[in-house]
C-alpha cells in the first residue's frame, strides 16, 4: 500500500501487483483508483503520483508525497492472490493444451517449483551471458537470465535474454523441413507468452550472425532449442526496463520525431520500485563501481598497515554533539545512532592500533533536502598516528585516491561505459600528485574572480563549486585538497594551527567542486580538548569516556571521513546521491 | 561519572581521572568515595565495584551494576582540572630546576604542545619497535612509544618502551668518565618521573646484549641518548597494563608462592576502561586477527565475483519479524534497526547482482545475557544465485573458511602467539574439505551417545556442544556443517526440502561446538513466501516491498550470515564474545 497525502487527506492505493494484465482482452485494471487515460502508458500513471520527491534539491514544503512504506492492505493482498491464481491456472491450461499435440513438448514449459528445491544436482553447466562471443561459435550452451524482450510470431521469434546488464538475442525458428525441426508452434507460442523480467533457462547453439546485432551487448546469437521458465514475473510491471534505461539523448531524439514518444521514469518511481530500477545496465554498473571503490580503499590501506575496525553505532549521548541524531531507547537507557565513528576511531588510536580504518553506516537525522545529503550513508573512515604533521594524512589520502581513480579507470571500463551510455560524463581529471591549496589561497582565487568572502567563515555550496571551476581552469584538475580552514568552522576536536590559532590543521577534499572528504589533525591533549569543547558550548560531561582516553597518554593523530556514495556520484558526475545508494534513506524515504 | 546502583539507590563516583597520585606522599586520594583499604591495590578497589556483569553467563537479576555511561559531573570535572594543573605546574617546576644546572638539558624534557601542532616537517625518521633487531646493531634510531615500565635509579635506569604490543628495553646509564657522558643525573631523574603509558620519543643506539632479555619482545636494547615526553598519562591509571596482560598460568604460579600476589582485572573493569585494556599484547593481536578475517572473507568472495553492497540499517517495520528490535522515530515515521541485511540482500539478488556480500553492523535487542550474544555485532553476510542446489552455497562457504583458517595460520603467527600467551588455546582442527552432516545424522550421533531429541525440534546450546565433541572425536574436526534442519525451527523465508516438507534446505556451521553461521536456500516463489509467512503468523503486509521483489521474476538463491566476533572468539577459543568486540554492546553495556 502506498499512502498519498493530498490536501491533508490520506488515502491509499495498491501498486504494481494490483495492475493485472489479462492476455485475452489486453485491458488494464486498476483497483480502488480511477482508470488511467486510455492509451497512456502505465508507468506514467503511477509516476505522476510519485513525482518530485527526490529530483535534486527540494524543500520540505514541496514534499507532498509520503513514502511508499508499503503495507499492502489485507483485502488488496487477497484480491491479488486470487488473480494470480487465476492467471496461473489459465497459463497452465493453455500450455497443457498445446503440449498434448506437440512432440517437442518436453523442450519448453514452466519449471515446477519442486524442481528448484535442491533436488540432486544434475551436472548441467550454465554459461554467463557476458562471456558469449564468437569463440563459442557452434557450441551448445545453457544460459539463465531474464526475458528482456520478445518479438515476432508465426514461425520466428526473437527472445532477448538479459543477465546482470548483458544481453543476448535468442532466435527460435520453425524450419520448413519437418524432420530438421527443433522448434515447434507450441514452443513459439509459449515463448511469445513469456512475461518480461521472467527468469528463463535457454539452451541453444552459439552462432555468429552475418551482420552486427544492434540492441544487445553480445555480438553472437543463440539458435534456441529449449526454453524453460524458472520464475514468472507478473505480466504488468511498475515500469519497463527499457524506459528506465534511456538517456537524455534518447529523449532528445524522440522529441525530434513526431511518432516517437518515450515514457520517462521519475526518480521517486524508480526508488519506490528500486529492485526493478537496479536492473538497468547503468545501475548494474554503478554498484559494481561502488564495490570496486571500497575494495581499492581497503587494498591501499591494508598495504599501509592499517587495521580494519568496527566501532559501535549505538552510543550513549550525541556522538559529536549537535541535534541531528536519531535517538532511541536502549534497554531503558537513552541512546543515539553514531553520526560518524569519529570518537571511537580516535579511541582506537589511543588504544595503540596506530592506523585504523572502518567502512560502515553513518546516520544523520538532518533535514537536508539536497542532491547530496542522505540520512544514512556509507562512511569510509580512517584515523592514524602522525609523527609531526597532518601532511602525513594528506600523503596517505593522496596515494589512496590516485590508486582508486587509476583502479576504476583500469578495471571498470565496461561499467563506466554502461554508466556513460545513460548518464554521459566527462572523465575525471586528476593529477598524479594531488594539488594542495590553503584556504587563504582558495579565497584569493575567488577574490580574483570577484567573490569576496569572510576570511574566517566557511565556504557555501556555491562558492565551493565556483572555486572548483577556477581550480580546474588554472590547474587542470577536478580533484584537489583545500587545507588550513578557519578554526571557527571546524569541530571542537580539530587541532589549531601552531602559528595562528584562528586557523586549523584541517582540510576538505573536493571532486568537481563538491566536498567528498573532511579531515584534520585532532586535538590529542585532554586539557585543550576540554577547553575547545567548552568554548563551543558542548557538554563535556557527556564526552568523558572519550576525553579520558587522552588522559592515559595519546599520540598525535589525524584522520578523515569519506562519503562513499559521494565519491561514486562525483567520479561519474551523477548529480543525485540517490543514484549511488542502493536503498537510499532521505528525510522522507524509509523504504524499500 | 559512573553510576552504581545498589539496593535501588543510585549514586555516582568519579573514576580514573580522580584517582590522583601525589609523588610526595605516595598516598592515593579518592573523592566522594570511602578510601580503599590501605595497601590494597587500586585496581582491585575499582574492580570490586564493577564485578560480575560480563563474566560469561549471567542473569539480569545479578546485574546490579549500571554501566559507566560516563557523564562526569561538572564539580568532579573542575576538581580534576585543578588537580591536573597543580600536577603539571609541579612537574614543570621540578624539571626547570633540574635543567638549569644540566649541560645535557636539551636532550630530555616535555615536548611543548605547540611543537606537535604540525610545524614544518623536521625530516626525522621514526623506527617501529617491532623491527628493532640485531641487523640494526650500532645504529642510532628514534622510536615513539609508551612508557611501559621504568625501574632503577641513581646512575642507571631501564625504560621499557611499548608500541602496538611490542616492547624494547632502553638503558640510560651515567658513565664514570664525565666527558663520555650522554646521560645526566637530571635525565635519569626525568625518566624516573615519567608516568606509565605516557608517550615518549627515545633516541638511542641499538645494541645486542650478552644475554637474552626476558620481559621484552625485542631481543636488542637501546642505549638511550635523548628522551622527550610527547603526551603525559595521568599518574594513576584505572589498572596496570601488566595486570591486564597476565594469563591464568601467571596466577597459578603466584598462588604457589607466598610472597607473590597479582591483581586480577575483571572483565567489567577492562570494558569500562576499554582503551587501556585494548593495549595489552593479546588484545592488540585479537583485533589484528579480526581485521585479517574480514580481509580474507572479502578477498575470497571478490575472487568469486561477489559484489560488495551496503544495505540500510534504518528500516520501516521489523526486518525479519520478532520482538527483539530497537525501535526509533524516523522523522515522524516508526522505524527500527535492521536485525540483519537479510531482506535487502535478497532484494539485491532480485535486482540482478548475482552474488553479493556485506560487512556491517547487526542489531539485536534481545535480553541474552550469555558469553556469545551481543546487542550489536558485525555481520559477514553473503547471498548468491544458485542454479540447482544449496550445496552451491556450501561449496563457497567451505572454500572461504578453509582460506580464512589457512590465512590466519599462515599470516597471523605472531598475533596467535600473543593471544596464546595470555589465553592458551588448542589450534583449530579443520579438514580441507569440510564435513557435512545432515541434521538427522547429527541426531543419530547424539542418540548413540544416549541423548534422544525431538527429530523436528532445534538443538540447544548443550546438545550443540555435545555434538561438537562427538564430531571431533569421530571425524577429527572442530569445524563442520550441519544441514537439512527441520523446517519448523527456521525462518519463514527458508526453502523446504523437495522430498520432505518437514525438513528445509538450511544449515548451521559450527566451530568447537558453537554456531557461527546460519544459512539456507531461500524461498524465491512469492506465493510460497506469503503462505510460509502466514503460517508463522507474520504480518505479510509489513513485508510487501520485500515480497514484491519476487513478483518481478526471481532466481533461486541462498546465503548465509556469519558473526565476525564469534569466528574470532571460537578460532582462538576465547570463551567470551566481549573479548572480540572492540567496544561491546550487551543488554547493560552502552559505553564506552
Question: Can you describe this structure?
Answer:
2 copies of one chain form a homodimer. Residues 1-73 of chain A have low confidence and may be disordered. Chain A has 16 helices and 21 strands. The first copy, chain A, has helices spanning 42-48, 74-100, 185-192, 241-244, 248-256, 267-272, 274-277, 281-303, 342-350, 391-411, 413-422, 439-448, 461-475, 526-535, 544-551, 564-571; strands at residues 2-6, 9-13, 20-21, 28-29, 108-110, 140-151, 156-163, 166-173, 199-207, 221-231, 307-308, 314-315, 327-330, 333-337, 355-363, 376-385, 435-438, 479-483, 506-511, 514-521, 557-563. The first copy, chain A, has 4 domains: 2-88, no CATH class; 105-231, OB fold (Dihydrolipoamide Acetyltransferase, E2P) (Beta Barrel), CATH 2.40.50; 241-277, no CATH class; 281-580, BirA Bifunctional Protein, domain 2. Helix content of chain A is 30%, strand content 21%. With 592 residues, chain A is of the alpha+beta class.
Amino acid at each position: 500500500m502506498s499512502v498519498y497525502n493530498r490536501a491533508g487527506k490520506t488515502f491509499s492505493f495498491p501498486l504494481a501487483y494490483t495492475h493485472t494484465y489479462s492476455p485475452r482482452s489486453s485491458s488494464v485494471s486498476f483497483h480502488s483508483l480511477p482508470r488511467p487515460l486510455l492509451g497512456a502508458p502505465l508507468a506514467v500513471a503511477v509516476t505522476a503520483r510519485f513525482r518530485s520527491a527526490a529530483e535534486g534539491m527540494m524543500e520540505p514544503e514541496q514534499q507532498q508525497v509520503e513514502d511508499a512504506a508499503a503495507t499492502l492492505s489485507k483485502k488488496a493482498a487477497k484480491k491479488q492472490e486470487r488473480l494470480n491464481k487465476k492467471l496461473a491456472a489459465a497459463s497452465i491450461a493453455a500450455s497443457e493444451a498445446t503440449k498434448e499435440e506437440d512432440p517437442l513438448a518436453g523442450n519448453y514449459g514452466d519449471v515446477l517449483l519442486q524442481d528448484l528445491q535442491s533436488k540432486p544436482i544434475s551436472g548441467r553447466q550454465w554459461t554467463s551471458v557476458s562471456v558469449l562471443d564468437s569463440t563459442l561459435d557452434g557450441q551448445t550452451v545453457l544460459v539463465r537470465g531474464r526475458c528482456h524482450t520478445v518479438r515476432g510470431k508465426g514461425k520466428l521469434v526473437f527472445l532477448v535474454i538479459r543477465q546482470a546488464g548483458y544481453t543476448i538475442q535468442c532466435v527460435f525458428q520453425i524450419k520448413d523441413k519437418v524432420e530438421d525441426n527443433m522448434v515447434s508452434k507450441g514452443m513459439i507460442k509459449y515463448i511469445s507468452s513469456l512475461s518480461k523480467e521472467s527468469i528463463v533457462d535457454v539452451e541453444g547453439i552459439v552462432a555468429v550472425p552475418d551482420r552486427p546485432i544492434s540492441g544487445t551487448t553480445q555480438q553472437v546469437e543463440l539458435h534456441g532449442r529449449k526454453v524453460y521458465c524458472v520464475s514468472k514475473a507478473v505480466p504488468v510491471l511498475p515500469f519497463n526496463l527499457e524506459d528506465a534505461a534511456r538517456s537524455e539523448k534518447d529523449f532528445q531524439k524522440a522529441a525530434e520525431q513526431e511518432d516517437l514518444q518515450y515514457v520517462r521514469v521519475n526518480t521517486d518511481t524508480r526508488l519506490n520500485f528500486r529492485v526493478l530500477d537496479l536492473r538497468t545496465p547503468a545501475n548494474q554498473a554503478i554498484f559494481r563501481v561502488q564495490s570496486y571503490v571500497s575494495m581499492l580503499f581497503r587494498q591501499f590501506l591494508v598495504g599501509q598497515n592499517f587495521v580494519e575496525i568496527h566501532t559501535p553505532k549505538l552510543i550513549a549521548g550525541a556522538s559529536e554533539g549537535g541535534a541531528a541524531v536519531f535517538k532511541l531507547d536502549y534497554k531503558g537507557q537513552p541512546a543515539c545512532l553514531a553520526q560518524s565513528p569519529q570518537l571511537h576511531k580516535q579511541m582506537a588510536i589511543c588504544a595503540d592500533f596506530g592506523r585504523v580504518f572502518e567502512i560502515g553506516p553513518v546516520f544523520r537525522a538532518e533535514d537536508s533536502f539536497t542532491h547530496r545529503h542522505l540520512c544514512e550513508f556509507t562512511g569510509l573512515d580512517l584515523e592514524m598516528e602522525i609523527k609531526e604533521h597532518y601532511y602525513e594524512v594528506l600523503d596517505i589520502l593522496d596515494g589512496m585516491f590516485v590508486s582508486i581513480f587509476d583502479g576504476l579507470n583500469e578495471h571498470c571500463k565496461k561499467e563506466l561505459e554502461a554508466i556513460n551510455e545513460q548518464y554521459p560524463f566527462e572523465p575525471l581529471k586528476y593529477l598524479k600528485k594531488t594539488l594542495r591549496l590553503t584556504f587563504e589561497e582558495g579565497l584569493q582565487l575567488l577574490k580574483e574572480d570577484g567573490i569576496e568572502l569572510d576570511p574566517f567563515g566557511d565556504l557555501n555550496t556555491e562558492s565551493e563549486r565556483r572555486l572548483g571551476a577556477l581550480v580546474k581552469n588554472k590547474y587542470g584538475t577536478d580533484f584537489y585538497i583545500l587545507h588550513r580552514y578557519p578554526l571557527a568552522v571546524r569541530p571542537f576536536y580539530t587541532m589549531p594551527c601552531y602559528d595562528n590559532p584562528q586557523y586549523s590543521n584541517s582540510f576538505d577534499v573536493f571532486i568537481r567542486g563538491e566536498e567528498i572528504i573532511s579531515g584534520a589533525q585532532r586535538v590529542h591533549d585532554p586539557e585543550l580538548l576540554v577547553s575547545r569543547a567548552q568554548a563551543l558550548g558542548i557538554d563535556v560531561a557527556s564526552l568523558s569516556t572519550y576525553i579520558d582516553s587522552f588522559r592515559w597518554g595519546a599520540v598525535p593523530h589525524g584522520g578523515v571521513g569519506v562519503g562513499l556514495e559521494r565519491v561514486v556520484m562525483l567520479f561519474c558526475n551523477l548529480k543525485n546521491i540517490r543514484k549511488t545508494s542502493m536503498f537510499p534513506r532521505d528525510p522522507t524515504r524509509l523504504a524499500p
